[in-house]
Design goal:
Layout (H helix, E strand, L loop, with lengths): L12 E5 L1 H7 L9 E5 L1 H14 L7 E5 L5 H13 L4 E2 L8 H11 L3 E5 L1 H6 L1 E6 L5 E5 L3 H26 L1
Parallel strand pairs: 3-4, 3-5
Antiparallel strand pairs: 1-2, 5-6, 6-7
């Protein structure tokens, strides 16, 4: 079980008996048995939103991106190589998406790695690998980029497991 030590900022439910309150409005001051309950739905949604922000949105591990026009086929080739190695990958399926939109998509979906191909990388036979959590970029040979991506993903999963172990030790 995961136990959160952070405060939610207040209660999410309350209730009690309100016999005398209802009796004040009754004819001749009768005592009417009454109970009430209140749920803080908005507070529950706020808590859920905060928890969802911390978790990854997507199971996709790698986004294949390009910053220039006319590289759809090249992105598809890289994507197929990643799929052949059982790496959950995707690309934006527009013919010429803007690089900023691709980065924003990766950030919004919680995709940790971006593989970038451009005209210069294509001419050199290289690809750029960017780790979105550390913002580090690495230019690698196209022939071994899948191994580099796998290595980076293994490092990231190792770091994630270490953090989870630390959290469990604290609880």
């Amino acid at each position: 079980a995961v136990v959160s030590t952070q405060s939610t900022g207040g209660s999410v439910a309350g209730g009690g008996r309100y016999d005398n309150l209802v009796g004040m409005f009754a004819a001749k001051g009768r005592s009417i048995p009454c109970v009430g309950v209140s749920l803080g739905i908005e507070r529950l949604f706020t808590i859920m939103e905060k928890r969802m922000e911390k978790s990854r949105v997507s199971s996709i591990q790698v986004l294949v991106a390009s910053g220039q026009k006319g590289l759809l086929k090249e992105r598809m080739k890289l994507l197929n190589l990643l799929w052949d190695s059982d790496i959950n990958s995707e690309m934006l399926y527009k013919a010429n998406p803007k690089l900023l939109n691709q980065f924003q998509h990766a950030e919004a979906e919680g995709i940790p790695v971006i593989v970038i191909i451009g005209e210069s990388e294509l001419a050199e036979g290289k690809v750029k690998i960017r780790d979105l959590t550390t913002r580090e970029e690495k230019l690698v040979d196209r022939s071994c980029f899948v191994q580099e991506v796998q290595s980076l993903l293994e490092q990231k999963s190792g770091r994630k497991e270490e953090k989870e172990e630390e959290h469990v030790a604290e609880v």
